Amino acid sequence: MGNWKMLLNDSTVINRGIGGDITYGVLKRLEDVIDRQPSKVFLLIGINDIGKDIPDAVIADNIGKIVQRIQAGSPGTKVYVQSIMPVNPDVPNFPQHYDKQSHIVHANQLIQKMAAQLHVPFIHIYDLFIDAQGRLNAKYTADGLHLTATGGGYQKWVDYLKSKGYL
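^ thats the sequence. predicted structure below, dont judge the formating
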């Protein structure tokens, strides 16, 4: 899922993630976000692009286009770009993503570079969720790709964002 959120008036959170979404999908429906003039946008997108074998450079470029369009259309919005999370091939259900760990690492490097060029914060959440083997820690997932509501991953993520002053 493209897991991205926008924060309106520092209190209302709207989840704009759509299951199976890719960066091209976000670009197509970005006007809805811009029209709302949110105070903050937290962008996490790219794993489904990787699953569809979209090149890492294209993913980073599309994320850059998303950031630039938000900046141009809603200049008061603070945009935060988050790294793509790891996956875990030992947990079945999303095999199209399991041999892509090196692509995730490379795409994250390109996304981080793009964020620096556009002067937006890059939040490296990847390391928050890895196990000793560098995979998505099984305690946070039931399918090897998404965090579960009960595994504590979302709370860990929120606590991290708060500790860094992003929330």
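The chain is about 40% helix and 10% strand.
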